Amino acid sequence: MPEGPSIAILAESVQGFAGRTIAAASGNSKALPYDELPGQPILSLRSWGKHFLLELPLYTLRIHFLMFGSYRIDERKEGARPRLSLQFAEGGELNFYSCSIKLVEGELEQAYDWRGDVMADAWSPRLALKKLRENPERFACDVLLDQNIFAGVGNIIKNEVLFRLHIHPLSTVINLPQSKLRDLVKQARQYSFEFKIWKQALVLKQHWQVHNRSECPRCHITLQRAHLGLTQRRTFWCERCQTRYDSSLVL
């Protein structure tokens, strides 16, 4: 599943399509009124968390790439039928595959709280801290994946941030020291920007410390791996150097 930094890269790479007019639209999504799209100009192309947004005068097309979604710019994926294919009067095309597409009505500024996007200029660490404190009993591995708190953070970022901060994924919010809670908010954003830089340089995997790794780079012991928390997402951690902040200590 593409994480927020990958969607931000997509949004940056298609800015040249802003202002172009849709000449033809097709695809296999039952949610889209394809006949309404030709003649519509692209007002903006933006990202919010894991959502890619194509703003039109009528509404916004919200694209979520799920687990295996992909896209092509000015080309097509051989042997695959796009969920949405857009051709433009000024030239060029955008094609989206294996994704979820929904219509967002009204103004984007009202539909989305940009303070919750870890990569947005409007990101509010104060608001993230407030939301964390409203969820005191939840696990660190779950709150990091909560898109209402950290829009754009995915499983890779979750695993790497928790390791960087020496926090066990089953630590509960209420038992985290306040300094760790603030660091969690800070690193969720900082690592997301590092992720973006590394991905653009094609060296992202080289920087993984625990995600998909077998040995702790600090302790040189075998890493633990399991599907943890309510989200049941695959998690990698070190039992020695990642402290479990949980007074109950019950799995």
Automatic annotation (TrEMBL):
Residues 2-96 form the Formamidopyrimidine-DNA glycosylase catalytic domain. GO terms for biological process: base-excision repair. InterPro entries: FPG_cat, FPG_N, H2TH_FPG, Ribosomal_uS13-like_H2TH, Znf_DNA_glyclase/AP_lyase. Gene3D superfamilies: 1.10.8.50, MutM-like, N-terminal. It catalyses: Hydrolysis of DNA containing ring-opened 7-methylguanine residues, releasing 2,6-diamino-4-hydroxy-5-(N-methyl)formamidopyrimidine. It comes from the Bacteria. It holds the Pfam family H2TH. GO terms for molecular function: damaged DNA binding; DNA-(apurinic or apyrimidinic site) endonuclease activity; lyase activity; oxidized purine nucleobase lesion DNA N-glycosylase activity; zinc ion binding. Residues 209-243 form the FPG-type domain. Belongs to the FPG family. This is Endonuclease. It comes from Pseudoduganella guangdongensis.
